[in-house]
Amino acid sequence: MEIIGTQIEKHYHQPNLYNDIINRLKELDVDLNTVTRKDIAAVDEFHVRGVEVSRELAKIANINNARLLDIGCGIGGPCRMLADEFNCDTVGIDISKEYVATASKLSELVGLSHRTKFINGDALNLPFQNNEFDVVWTQHVQVNINDKLKFYSEIDRVLSRNGAFIYYEVFKNGNEEVNYPLPWADESKISFLEHSSKIDSILQQVGWVKKQSTNQTENGIKVLEKMHNRLSKRGVPRLGLNVLMGASTKDKIANLLNGLKEGKIYLESGIYNKKVVCKDI
Predict the structure, then answer these.
(1) Structural domains present in the chain
(2) What is the DSSP secondary structure assignment for residue 115, as one 8-state letter?
(3) Which of 125, 82, 131 lies closest to 107 in space, CA to CA?
(4) Prediction pTM value
(5) Taking residues 251-257, what's their average pLDDT?
(6) Torsion on CA atoms 192, 194, 196, 202, rounded to nearest 10
(7) pLDDT exceeding 70 applies to what percent of the chain?
(8) Rounded CA gap, 156 and 275, in Å?
(9) Could you tell me if 93 and 99 are in contact, meaning their C-beta atoms sit under 8 angstroms apart?
(10) What confidence tens digit (pLDDT) does each residue in 31-84 have?
(11) 81-114 burial, b for 16+ CB within 10 Å, e for fewer?
């Protein structure tokens, strides 16, 4: 597991990431004394549809004023959005030391360090107390997790009795192999795609009930098509997800888009709650 973890961290590593973002902001003539979330929005959320889908999920789940844990928080965009727009106290955890350091500095840059905290750590061994969070949320994370029972059991442990688990994930559809590289993996050895029915079975096993789920594939395809067309016509933008994906950005977007269009994979979001156990008096 340590070897896999090292390989995953290496996949996401972009050296001097915060300084790179700062330099790109300078090139865009952004005043570094007045940087807002809007200024960094293009790079802030590393998942399909970015802040649009994060805000959508937060509204559906009604998570105002929650104590929230974002597992696989990346450079912290969802945590900042939830703190800023939904008055949440947010904690993000990620395997990438570079992401965590960048997330902390970006929160300070936009004036949200008092409502956001970022920790470098392992999703399979969460450094938190039992029942510590009202909401746990993941976006495009379990694709890098092999031991899914351990992953969801840890989420169950840190989630309060009346808490909600919110997910937005990429799932396997059938058994046909996808093409790499993809945003979460350059090759299959760190990609652990699974069917959503398998995940649902695990979540029921740990004692959760599905409140709702939504197929997000069509919306995702529309956004990815626009992104791919822009990359083909104009090349990579000065500030965008290419900062996180590196030189293979166009190939990763193309393979993800084709996988969705060909039906090999699909996007789904949803909400689970812990099962309420009634005890006789």
Answers:
(1) 2-271 (3.40.50.150)
(2) T
(3) 82
(4) 0.95
(5) 98
(6) -80
(7) 98
(8) 11
(9) no
(10) 999 999 999 999 999 999 999 999 999 999 999 999 999 999 999 999 999 999
(11) bbbbebebbbbbbbbbebbbebbbbbbebbebbe
